[in-house]
Design goal:
Blueprint: E1 2-8, E2 11-16, E3 45-46, H1 48-53, H2 60-64, E4 69-77, E5 83-90, H3 95-107, E6 110-111, E7 113-115, E8 118-120, E9 122-130, H4 132-138, H5 144-150
Antiparallel strand pairs: 1-2, 3-6, 4-5, 4-9, 7-8
């Protein structure tokens, strides 16, 4: 349905009722609706590509002493998905691994939570694994002699 309305003398404004929505909300900090559509709320999340591209640095001393573990980090992000702060929720029982996980979390990208179509600040619980087997698979350039020197002798 089209309506014509006089705005100023000699200028006609056309309004198409119900068929055109102008969404200037993106410039005001809104994000597009999530894939599930409007009403699909979602919590904040870590960008998996960012996490995989920027893995935590295995601390040399922990690597040498063959220390493995999982650190669970809580990351607080704002409504733009920007990192605010992080803390250790569950320690690996090794201070170096805990610090490496916190440092890695500072460099990852995040997606903000979305509730009712509006971005919100939120917290994310992220497990960070330090696994020697995965480390050696990811670093094939390390010679076998270097790798053997990091592992204690088998008895």
């Amino acid at each position: 349905m089209m309506k014509f309305k006089r705005a100023w003398p000699g200028i006609a404004v056309i309004a198409i009722a119900g068929s055109f929505m102008c969404n200037f909300g993106y410039a005001q900090g809104r994000v597009p609706p999530p894939p599930g559509g409007i009403g699909s709320d979602r919590g904040a999340s870590v960008d998996i590509l960012s996490k995989n591209s920027n893995p935590p640095v295995y601390p040399p001393d922990a690597l040498h002493d063959s220390i493995e573990g999982t650190v669970v980090v809580i990351v607080k992000v704002n409504e733009y998905g920007e990192f605010l702060r992080a803390f250790v929720d569950r320690s690996s029982k090794n201070r170096q691994l805990d610090q490496a996980a916190l440092e890695a979390a500072r460099h990852w990208r995040y997606n903000p939570a979305v509730y009712n179509g509006m971005p919100q600040s939120d917290s994310i619980r992220i497990p960070v694994d330090f696994d020697l087997e995965k480390y050696w698979e990811a670093h094939p350039d390390t010679t076998s002699e270097q790798a053997k020197s990091f592992y204690p002798p088998v008895r």
